[in-house]
Amino acid sequence: MQYQIMMVQWQKLLKNSGLGSIMSEILAPAGGENSAISAINAGADAIYLGLDKFSARSSAENFGADRLLKICQYAHAFGVKVYVALNTLVKDSELNEFISSAVGAWNAGADALIIQDIFLGKFLKENFPNMRLHLSTQAGTCNIYGARLAKKYGFERVILARETKLTDIAEISKIIETEAFVQGALCTCFSGQCYLSSFAGGNSGNRGKCKQPCRKQYAIDRKGFEDKAYRLSLADLCVGEKIDEYISAGVTSFKIEGRMRRPEYVAAAVNYYRNIRRRIFRKVIQ
After folding, report:
1. pLDDT band at 97 (very low <50, low <70, confident <90, very high)
2. Which range has the worst mean pLDDT, 6-15, 118-127, 211-220, 244-253?
3. Per DSSP, what are the bridge partners of residue 92?
4. H-helix or E-strand containing 44?
5. How confident is residue 8, by pLDDT bands cut at 50, 70 and 90?
């Protein structure tokens, strides 16, 4: 009860401060069970993970039905939410298995399902109205029109494309919950639109099999660029102290990328953003 009273007081202070909701959740990656536990123990508000199939990170450890149930129970014991990523493109021949996986994940205790195909999300919502759906970053939502369509089709949240402008984030956040990346690797291409890995070796990122050819060194047949270097690879994203701008824009969730990262990285990233959020809050209440 004391905690609930404190939360109400915080929200009143934040509303008056113009910062929106400083209690934006810190969402951590869980490529496997050890990373999930590390994130929860470090104080993440939510974790996201993939199943053995239909995950955009098929090379991660991922979760079968039994382990998903176990980690949902562990997370919920600490008040931590679990979001299950079913965020690859799905072939017609896989629809029955996909729907079965979605229902199984929801029944195991998932707090939301992350879906790339907006029309599959629409189908799930029509047939399972209690399901909470988040539209994957791979759907490319970066403006109010995509946000309105997502909401119309039953999604409760959009995971913003990384290239979304801050001014657009603020407008989208007025329409629907927003989740924005604050830490981790950046794709060279637009979210969900890259076929480089598919063309280079038949491993499509949109099927969860990206081999990250953009991370390799390349030489260019041009004077001054003959030596191999990381010509395509981007530096990791680190919003850091600037998350106050995301808070002001109304972002609901700060997402840390890294389902292929070690548990130690996950815990360190969670702690880093928890400390920043705490410092911002202290400034507000002073």
Report:
1. very high
2. 6-15
3. none
4. none
5. very low
The residue length of the chain stands at 286
In the chain the first and final C-alpha atoms are separated, in Å, by 24
Q: Please give the Cα distance from 70 to 235 (Å, whole number).
A: 35
> What pairs with residue 15 in β-bridges?
none
CA–CA gap between residue 166 and residue 179 (Å, rounded): 13
Q: Under 8 Å CB-to-CB from 39, ≥6 apart: which residues?
A: 28, 29, 30, 47, 80, 266, 267, 270
Six token digits for residue 272? 């880093």
Domains and CATH numbers, the chain: 2-186+237-285 (3.20.20.70), 189-234 (no CATH)
Structure tokens, 186: 């950046």
Q: Residue 128 pLDDT more than 90? A: yes
Residue ranges of E strands in 133-258: 133-135, 157-159, 177-184, 237-238, 253-256
pTM of the model: 0.88
**How many Å apart are CA 84 and CA 132, to the nearest integer?**
11
User: How far is CA 179 from each of CA 19, 105, 146, rounded to the nearest angstrom?
Assistant: 16, 21, 14
**Structure-block tokens of residue 198:** 């598919």
Q: Which helix (H) or strand (E) holds 153?
A: none
For residue 61, pLDDT beyond 50? yes
What is the CB neighbour count within 10 angstroms for residue 57?
21
Answer whether residue 225 shows pLDDT above 90: no
DSSP letter at 256 equals E
Query: Residue 17: pLDDT above 70?
Result: no
